[in-house]
Amino acid sequence: MKIYCEKDYEAMSRRVAGILAAQVTLKPDCVLGLATGSSPAGAYKELVRRYQEGELDFSGVTSVNLDEYKGLSGENDQSYRYFMDSNLFDHVNIDKSRTFVPDGLEPDSEKACADYNAIIRREGPVDLQLLGLGNNGHIGFNEPSAVFEKETHCVDLTASTIEANKRFFEKEEDVPRQAYTMGIGNIMQAKKILLIVSGEGKADIVARAFCGSVTPEVPASILQFHDDVTLVGDEAALSKLMAEMEK
């Protein structure tokens, strides 16, 4: 595993953007696995800047997103399709017909998941999968569980995830209680994985994920078994991991 410990969020975002940009430059028709949330937002802003300055061309890129809230349309400003459009896709020359997000409006969970698995198989393998890390160790919306889910599935969001996400909604009651998410198996099939973490609040879970046992109770711990993982974080988020590694 490669680890980049950056001074702050801005430096971390530049590092992540640089890795994503290198992937696009080296393989213009690459498949990117993308994530949403506050952690990657800065990296997307930097990618947009590089595109606007003529450094990047997204015209051949395909993207597959990790997850989507069940029940939200792509026009809902809290949906992950909306996030990707407003933070990246609307500002670069990517072909939106080749940007894929689970269908949050499909009420039949089995169909929604089967359809997305078919897309992943058709478009994949993912060359570089970007991940964030939840406070409880989730990647995508793979919450702590008794087993590692292999493929796209519908998940009941935990109380801690709802609590963490309620800041994006008018009130807690508006936060969806379910989401469609790639499974751990889907994520682990990516050729390369790029995990981004920021803030002191992530320090404990980062250390548990990479220095503790591999267990579905800490979903991100499975990344210990992937042979090409890059972890980028700020000093606060990586503080306890670095301390453990120095022992």
Which terms summarize this structure?
single chain; 247 residues; alpha/beta; Rossmann fold; 7-stranded parallel β-sheet; 3-stranded antiparallel β-sheet; 8 helices; 10 strands; 36% helix
Structure description:
- By secondary structure, the chain is of the alpha/beta class.
- It has one domain: 3-Layer(aba) Sandwich (Rossmann fold).
- It has eight helices and ten strands.
- The strands form two sheets. A seven-stranded parallel beta sheet has the order 1-10-9-6-2-3-5, sandwiched between helices. A three-stranded antiparallel beta sheet has the order 4-8-7, covered by helices on one side.
- Helix 7 links the parallel strand 9 and strand 10.
- It is globular.
- The two termini are 17 Å apart.
- The model has no long low-confidence stretch (mean pLDDT 96).
